[in-house]
Design a protein that fits this description.
The complex is a heterodimer of chains A (650) and B (228). With 650 residues, chain A is mostly helical. Chain A contains 30 helices and six strands. By secondary structure, chain B is α/β, with parallel strands linked by helices. Classes of the chains: A mainly alpha (650), B alpha/beta (228).
């Protein structure tokens, strides 16, 4: 236990110190984690911590990341991307693998090892690249989208690669199925601790349902389990989450989300498939469910921490003895690899017409090897495809190339983007119009939502009443279940890219909290807030909202107008009277809101009290029908000139 | 218990006399649409009187635009329907800055659509008669080249005149009451309102020589020269 606490403290300390500093220096969080790992590695070594086994555990972060990627991709979108996935992504994987394998053979490697190396190096780092693109806001740009397609293809391609690699060890004719579990083992190691079955030593979770089954049955089981994920994801998760949401226990929802991801990973491991593939499919299936954003918000912190841990272990795993022993060879190989990958990407950028900064971003962002490279390497060495010593060197190259990646991003930002964007400002497509987030889908939010939708705006609707969201979804409204005042949910819904937030919550305190949070952390987001009454208006104003609508004000004014008409006032006079009333009331309210102080009561706040008394007096006069500002406004419009005015005109 | 009984009473009510009776219809009977625009009717001294005298008259449809569209959301289809079903279109308004009150401009902008009021298919208004009934604050001599308004009223209204022309309507000069701010004090209001009812009767019965009237500076002048 002490050992665990010490390790946890070290890792967390490393992250907490290194990441903010790296971010501050513009290096990005991934480099921060890697540096923390490098710094920690001697300490870990003296403590006898096995960084590699921790890395296997941390690889579960990659599984979670694929789940989250799946959540972002509706099946429809995935289908729409098929050309890019197959063309751009497929060519990148095949092209790079072939080029790397060719060079490996030039260096005298036998073809089977050369192909294995090619496969390992064809992959890029989904974790680093997506994280960095997201942090720098480049994910939606042309180059970012192209990179994303390639990374997605690579993540999917890992699965056939895991099946292919044992075949490369042909002479020994190893039992392919038996090692399928090991293949999954790398990425799915987290399930070991969950399953509680540690009997198998290193392969705690390595129970394989497939053992002893004939080939056709294995295929059936594999197809069946993927089918199970699709069907269960489509039909079982909704009732389950609905049931859980009635409990109103956020941690149970989080537990269920984790159970979903880990359970699928376990199932995949059992049938010898990649857990990453399984969770990815589950994510895609759940992508158009109303629980999508809540799931995202729940899984995101776990994913972030596990990936961070993963990068720390990559940093810690750098074998400096080996590196300094063959410093120039390894550095040379690393740079050569990145150059080669970059050249393949450059060719693809030309073929697929990624111009200007988009092409550069595409080329620079994907030139490294990736975390799946580690997974494949450990798998290849286990299968005897690549000898252990060579595996160590290759591991080092993967780690170094990942370590250099943030540098390429910095190069892109400081040199390419700066230069290209100055000379050709219209090169990068402007971000598609940011979405509108509507928090609260009651009677108030619904009307706002309908108006926005019918005017062609994309809205994301959040509400913590499950029934309401379900009903709305039946009418085709895009709604998600969750507590909108939770910052994580807001972030999952895209607040950082949103243009507008409509706060239409019933809960007054939550509405104020939300406005406070968003106006402080996302000052670019415009806020339209619904207020319950005057007091609430002041609170929202103090919290930073400026477009504040009292929920019953406009309807009351309309009722007043109808009342005047019913009493025989000319409709246009009634209209003028209601306009004048609205103007006066809103002016007064704005004056009072500016004077109101959340820390003082109305009586303690002298300026406020004085203004309120003044306004009350004015109102009283107006209500007695005396000639005041209120009346003047009504009467000024369309008043004829005084009698006899014409004789004075010349 | 049910016996069929022939409805003799119904048959008896079809009196042979009523079948023979001839309804006397005037030779030509034009229908008139008055679009009345006054944004401050509580202060009106002349227009309200004119409206009061015309209200309920057979063959005249009176529309208070500010009452019907207090928020300016003009129903284009309804307004076009009204135009179709009348022969004579009248804008009645107090002059605001040498033009109509704003709702009448809004009305023109929305209702007189291409394909309805103008354009090769826009023939809905062809052959109809258009005129205005206007009250002005300034005296008659102010509306002359020598007066402080520098233009005769008919000149100032040329946008309306050309609108009528483009829509294929016969444009009649304005029926006007100058110096309306002091009309009540000079006891001109009742006479003007009576005159207005008379004008409408003449138009309904087609007893006005439109070609001649169209040449006059005001409709008031035309009536005077015609001795009507």
């Amino acid at each position: 236990m002490d050992g665990f606490l010490l390790q946890a403290t070290l890792f967390l300390l490393g992250a907490v110190v290194a990441v903010p500093i790296a971010n501050r220096l513009g290096l990005g969080s991934v480099l921060g984690y890697l540096i923390a790992g490098v710094v920690l590695s001697p300490v870990l070594k003296t403590l006898g911590v096995d960084a590699i086994s921790i890395q296997h555990f941390a690889e579960f972060g990659v599984v979670m990341m694929l789940f989250l990627i799946g959540l972002e991709l509706e099946p429809r979108q995935l289908w729409a991307m098929r050309h890019r996935l197959l063309g751009l992504g497929g060519l990148q994987v095949v092209g790079t693998a072939a080029a790397v394998a060719g060079f490996a053979m030039l260096f005298g490697q036998p073809w089977s090892i050369a192909v294995a190396i090619g496969l390992v190096f064809s992959l890029s780092s989904t974790a680093i690249v997506l994280q960095t693109l997201g942090e720098k806001g480049l994910l939606r740009s042309d180059g970012g989208q192209a990179s994303f397609s390639v990374l997605l293809t690579q993540d999917i391609a890992v699965i056939p690669m895991l099946a292919l690699i044992p075949l490369l060890a042909m002479p020994e004719l190893m039992d392919v199925a038996g090692h399928g579990a090991e293949a999954a083992h790398g990425a799915g190691h987290g399930t070991d601790d969950h399953g509680g079955d540690h009997g198998g030593g290193d392969h705690g979770g390595g129970i394989n349902l497939m053992e002893g089954l004939p080939g056709w049955a294995q295929t059936l089981v594999v197809l069946g389990s993927v089918g199970l994920i699709v069907v269960a994801g489509q039909y079982l998760t909704r009732p389950m989450f609905r049931f859980l949401s009635h409990a109103h226990l956020p941690e149970i929802f989080t537990a269920a989300a984790l159970l979903l991801v880990i359970g699928i990973a376990l199932l995949m491991t059992l049938v010898g498939l990649s857990p990453a593939l399984g969770t990815f499919v589950a994510g895609v299936v759940l992508a158009n469910s109303e629980y999508r954003h809540e799931l995202e918000a729940d899984i995101e912190p776990f994913k972030g921490l596990l990936l961070g841990l993963f990068f720390i272990t990559v940093g810690a795993g750098i074998n400096f003895a080996l590196l300094f022993g063959n410093f120039f060879v390894i550095i040379g190989l690393t740079l050569g690899l990145m150059l080669l990958k970059g050249l393949v990407l450059f060719a693809l950028a030309k073929i697929f017409r990624l111009r200007g900064s988009a092409g550069w971003l595409f080329m620079l962002s994907l030139a490294q090897a990736g975390e799946f490279g580690f997974v494949l390497l450990s798998f290849t060495t286990q299968n005897g495809v690549i000898p252990g010593a060579l595996g160590q060197t290759l591991s080092l190259i993967v780690a170094l190339s990942m370590l250099l990646t943030p540098g390429l991003f910095i190069f892109y930002e400081k040199v390419v983007a700066a230069k290209i964007d100055v000379t050709k400002p219209e090169e990068d497509e402007v971000d598609e119009s940011g979405p509108v987030i509507i928090a609260g889908l009651g009677r108030f939010g619904q009307i706002v939502n309908r108006m926005l939708l019918s005017n062609g705006h994309k809205t994301v609707v959040l509400d913590y009443h499950n029934e309401l969201i379900s009903t709305m979804r039946q009418f085709g409204v895009e709604g998600y279940f969750g507590d909108p005042s939770r910052p994580e949910l807001l972030e999952a819904a895209g607040i950082s890219e949103a243009k507008l937030l409509v706060v239409a919550l019933d809960d007054r305190e939550k509405a104020v909290m939300m406005v406070e949070h968003v106006s402080r952390d996302f000052p670019h987001v415009k806020i339209v807030a619904r207020a319950y009454d005057r007091q609430h208006t002041y609170q929202l104003y103090a919290a930073g909202a400026r477009d504040i609508v009292r929920e019953t004000f406009d309807s009351s004014v309309r009722a007043g107008r109808y009342a005047l008409m019913a009493l025989g006032h000319h409709p246009f006079e009634a209209e003028k009277a209601s306009r004048a009333y609205v103007k006066m009331d809103r002016d007064n309210l704005a004056e009072l809101a500016r004077l109101w102080d959340p820390d003082l009561t109305a009586i303690e706040n002298e300026a406020y009290a004085a203004k309120a008394r003044e306004i009350n007096a004015r109102m009283e006069e107006a209500m007695k029908g005396m000639h005041t500002d209120y009346h003047d406004r009504t009467e000024r419009g369309w008043t004829p000139p005084p009698k006899g005015y014409a004789s004075k005109l010349e | 218990m049910f016996r069929f009984s022939f409805p003799w009473a119904v048959l008896a009510s079809i009196h042979p006399v009523s079948l023979r009776k001839k309804v006397i219809v005037p030779v030509a009977r034009n229908s008139i649409l008055i679009l009345y625009a006054h944004p401050s009717q509580g202060r009106s001294e002349v227009n309200q009187e004119m409206v009061h005298d015309v209200e309920g008259t057979a063959g005249v449809t009176l529309i208070d635009l500010y009452a019907e569209y207090p928020t300016f959301e003009i129903d284009i289809d309804r307004e076009q329907g009204r135009l179709r079903s009348h022969d004579i279109i009248v804008f009645q308004f107090p002059l605001y800055w040498y033009s109509t009150p704003s709702i009448l401009k809004e009305w023109q902008d929305l209702v007189l659509e291409y394909g309805f009021a103008y354009g090769s298919d826009g023939t809905a208004l062809h052959g109809k008669v258009f005129l205005t009934a206007i009250t002005t604050g300034g005296a008659e001599d102010a509306y002359s080249h020598e007066g402080y308004n520098h233009f005769p009223l008919r000149h100032l209204l040329s946008p309306l005149e050309q609108t009528a022309n483009l829509c294929g309507m016969t444009y009649l000069p304005p029926f006007v009451l100058y110096g309306s701010r002091t009309a009540r004090e000079h006891n001109h209001v009742a006479a003007h309102a009576d005159r207005w009812v008379h004008v409408l009767d003449l138009l309904k019965a087609d007893r006005l020589n439109l070609a001649k009237a169209a040449m006059a500076p005001t409709l008031n002048d035309a009536l005077e020269t015609e001795g009507l």
